[in-house]
Amino acid sequence: MNNSSKIFSENEYIDSVFSKKIYLIVLILSAAWMILIFLAPYFSTTGGTGEKISSFIYLFFSKVCHQNDDRSFHAFGHNLGVCSRCVWIYSGFFAGILIYPLIKKISNVKIPSLWYLIIPVAILGADVLSDNLGIISNTFISRSVTGFLIGFVLVFFLLPGFLKFFYEVNLFLKNKLSA
Amino acid sequence: MNSPNRFTPVLYGTIVMTLISVFPLLNLINLICCAGVIAGGFAGVYSYRKQLLNTNIPLTHKDGGMIGILSGILAAVLVSGFGLIISLFSEANPLLEVMKAFDDLSIQTPPEMAYYIEKFSKEYNEFGFSPSITLISFVSNIILYPLFGAIGALLAVSVFNKKNAPQV
């Protein structure tokens, strides 16, 4: 068994300083992603270069979201970079990242029970399917709640994953360089 | 002990991501937070885990994450290239079709959107493809595919390791 797997299986903690650095990077990237979503409508009102930046941001997010006007929040007279559900997924993720240190130690890479992921995914899936099959039309509220929930719980599975990934890559590179 | 082949999982991941992204209707899956790309990362790690089942080698986040990132990079290049080839071999100007569809559905396009559709449409008429759209699409893909591929792969490692963890 290699060094990293030994560390995780025994106590599920990694170096505290290293984990804080990775946490900060994820927090900054998550904040930047949220800001981009709101910058898209803002820049479309400025004209000139701002308008070009805005259309690039809209095109960028068009890869990950349908951007349907009827299902989007609006700001500055335009729809946000992504639809309402996606806005809440990313908001949930950002909120999860923000309060993560209050719930558990950043250096603790143990993930919670899989049910915490399965249940929100099932609720979101039911909301999407019931709307598509014409059983119950979903609303801004149902899309927002289910989106926020999945974004929030994802943090507790993804952040430990990112921490372990960068920790193991760092360890691997150190071993390679010292060899 | 034979070391596991990491190329095959990357290939599996790339194939899943590319197929989901290029097939009409199937590519709508990517509109749910790049779910198709996340599935590709997940599939790559699933294939890698199958290789490790009869060995003592643990499934690490380093290997999983790298499978997701590499699959994402390869898929981004393939999907962008595929889009370019389709544009070059297609006689139709897709942007004119988009404008026609908007007219048919009585959707009012905002002036700035109409401006860009017209601008890119001119590029299609001149070159047979739009260099601006191709470039923006490639830049977006090369950022998003490895990112969401890694998310899918790391999620898969967490799920598989959790399933295999001894229950206390």
End-to-end Cα distance of chain B, whole Å, is 30 Å
Quaternary structure classification: heterodimer
Structural class of chain A: mainly alpha
Strand content of chain B: under 5%
Largest sheet of chain B: none
Unreliable stretches covering 5 or more consecutive residues of chain A: none
Mean pLDDT of chain A: 88
Taking the sheet with the most strands of chain A, its summary is: 2 strands, antiparallel
Helix content of chain B: over 70%
The span between the termini of chain A is 19 Å
Q: How many E strands of chain B?
A: 0
Structure summary, number of beta strands of chain A = 2
- Indicate how many domains the architecture of chain B comprises: 1
Mean pLDDT of chain B: 86
Strand order of the largest sheet of chain A: 1-2
Task: Describe the protein's architecture and organization.
The complex is a heterodimer of chains A (179) and B (168). By secondary structure, chain A is mainly α. Chain A has helices at residues 3-11, 16-46, 49-61, 84-103, 115-132, 140-178, and strands at residues 74-75, 78-79. Chain A has one domain. Chain A has a two-stranded antiparallel sheet with strand order 1-2. Chain A is globular. Chain A starts with a helix and ends with a helix. With 168 residues, chain B is mostly helical. Chain B has one domain. Chain B has six helices and no strands. In chain B, helix 2 crosses helix 6 and helix 4 (94-104) runs antiparallel to helix 5 (111-127). The radius of gyration of chain B is 20 Å and the shape is elongated. The model of chain B has no long low-confidence stretch (mean pLDDT 86). Classes of the chains: A mainly alpha (179), B mainly alpha (168).
